[in-house]
Structures are given as structure tokens and as C-alpha cells.
Write a structure and sequence with these properties.
By secondary structure, the protein is an all-alpha fold. Helices cover about 65% and strands about 0% of the residues. Helix 3 crosses helix 13 and helix 8 crosses helix 13. The longest helix is centred in the last third of the chain and has 17 residues. The chain is globular, with a radius of gyration of 15 Å. The protein binds fe (ii) ion (FE2) (2 copies). The site of one fe (ii) ion (FE2) has 4 residues, from loops. One fe (ii) ion binds next to helix 6.
Length: about 190
């Protein structure tokens, strides 16, 4: 059930050209922008790769505009996790699993954050349970990988720019391979 790095590369090739639901860029562009923005912000290698792969669930299962239009939460951040365990370390897996909750958290703690969300992201927020309440936000903030999930989320939100110049997937591949090799050896 676990994906290999080769499987991930094929997904980027095969499904990366599909539109990132509700936005004017492709899944591949969104992923590369997120990874690149993480690198530019000084993030460590693991967070860069987490950003690159955060929406792999959309590529593996297909992201419907359908889902948004039909009022369905596709749970892409949860459904991808079994496919990554065994390949990548928790420092990558957990922020990916928490990237939707990080949005719900930020909507609670930063009123300006919600106002800045894209239309598609606002629509999916409603399907994902809306902004957290104070108790849920407190619980989220106490989770071990919450800070990385929030950092990932900020790169995610900024990675929707039409025409941004970013390095190709192959630029990130050696780091993904190195991390997978290390995690696999543990
Ligand atoms: Fe996502
Ligand atoms: Fe995303």
C-alpha cells in the first residue's frame, strides 16, 4: 500500500497537469510553488518535502471540482496518509495530515487570515468544518507537529500564483530520495 518515490514521480507526471480544484493553476504548479516557497522561507528539508507533497492525495485520488461543487469534503489530507507511512518520517507525514486543521486553526486565531483566503479555499473550509472554536484551537496548538503544519499551510495558501517561476519537480527529487532512504532504513 505504501507508495515508492517512483510512484510519486509518476503521479506528478500523470496527474500533476490537472487543475488544482477551483484555482487557475495545476496540481503540479501548486505543489512546486509550495515546496519552493518553503525553501525560500528557510524551512528545513523535511518541511520543504512536506509542502511539495501536501496535496498528493488530490493527485492519487483525483480532485474533483466535483467535490467542491457538490459540497463534499474529499478528506485528501487523511486518505493519503496510509500510502506515505513506511516511506516518509512523521516530520513530513504529520504536517500533511494536519494541513486542513491548520487552516481551521488559523481562521480562529487570525481574523485577517480568513479574509485573505481564496474563494475555493473558503468554500472547502465550510465543508471541512469551518473555523475551530477556542477549545479545538487550544488542542490543535498543543499537538507535536502543529507548528510545522501551520508553516506548511502558509506556503500552501501562497502557492496559488499564476505564472510563478519555480524549479521543476526534479529539483526536489534528490532530497525526497535521500529522506525516503533514511526513513526506510530506520
Ligand atoms: Fe490540501
Ligand atoms: Fe494545497
Amino acid at each position: 500500500m505504501t507508495l515508492s518515490v517512483n510512484d510519486i514521480s509518476q503521479l506528478f507526471n500523470r496527474a500533476g497537469g490537472e487543475l488544482y480544484g477551483g484555482e487557475a493553476i495545476t496540481q503540479r504548479e501548486h505543489a512546486l510553488q509550495a515546496g519552493w516557497l518553503a525553501e525560500q522561507s528557510g524551512a528545513d528539508e523535511q518541511l520543504i518535502i512536506a509542502c511539495l507533497l501536501h496535496d498528493l492525495g488530490h493527485m492519487l485520488f483525483g480532485q474533483g471540482d466535483d467535490d467542491l461543487a457538490q459540497g463534499r469534503d474529499d478528506l485528501h489530507q487523511v486518505k493519503i496518509i496510509p500510502f506515505l507511512r513506511g516511506l516518509l518520517p512523521p516530520e513530513i507525514i504529520e504536517p500533511i495530515a494536519l494541513h486542513v486543521d491548520a487552516k481551521r486553526y488559523l481562521c480562529h486565531v487570525e481574523p485577517a487570515y480568513f479574509a485573505a483566503l481564496s474563494d475555493a479555499s473558503r468554500t472547502s473550509l465550510a465543508l471541512q468544518g469551518g473555523a475551530m472554536d477556542a477549545a479545538a484551537a487550544q488542542q490543535f496548538a498543543a499537538r507535536p507537529h502543529a507548528a510545522c503544519a501551520i508553516a506548511l499551510r502558509r506556503c500552501d495558501d501562497a502557492a496559488k500564483v499564476v505564472g510563478m517561476t519555480v524549479p521543476p519537480y526534479e529539483y526536489f527529487l534528490p532530497r525526497l530520495l535521500a529522506i525516503a532512504e533514511t526513513a526506510g532504513a530506520q
